[in-house]
Every structure is written in C-alpha cells, then in structure tokens.
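Hello again, I could really use a second opinion on something today. I've been puzzling over a protein and I'd love to understand its fold better. I'm sending you its amino acid sequence along with the backbone structure tokens. It would help a lot if you went through both lines with me. I've dropped the whole record in just underneath, so have a look.
***
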Amino acid sequence: MRHAEPPSPSFCSKTPLFLIGRDRLGNWVVRDVQGLRGGLFVGRTEALKYALFENGNRPQAVIMVPGIVELDLSATPLPAAGLAA
C-alpha cells in the first residue's frame, strides 16, 4: 500500500476509517474507528480486502496499526464529532 497524506476531517465524516493490525494472539483484525464494523481474518490480504470493500475502495481511509489492535464487540460507538477533534 502506498503512503499518502492523512485524510482531512471533512473526508473522515463521509468515509469510514478502518484500522488494520494484529491482536495479542497474532490474528489479523480490522475495525472501523467508530466501533461499528470489523472482524478477524486469516491474513493481511483478506483484512485489507474487507476494509477496502467496506469503505468504497478508498485506500487513504485504511490505517495500518503497528501496535496491538483488539476487536471489541462490546464497545460503544464513538460520536462522529469526536473524530474531528
């Protein structure tokens, strides 16, 4: 994936941002920043395909996380206004 400028706040309000990384057990995790969508995947390629499909094929709205990413299905969605802050 190419490196690109971070998305602008106005872009973020229209396009869901997705985080991709590994959890503590080494599973590939995808989740949107609002905690509404996501999943566990067998590999990085499958995780990236899911994230791109869910955000309308916008690679600039996919963030590869170097640290730990956990899929928390009990999370309360963040308000959209909190993303721009």
About this structure: The longest helix spans residues 44-54.
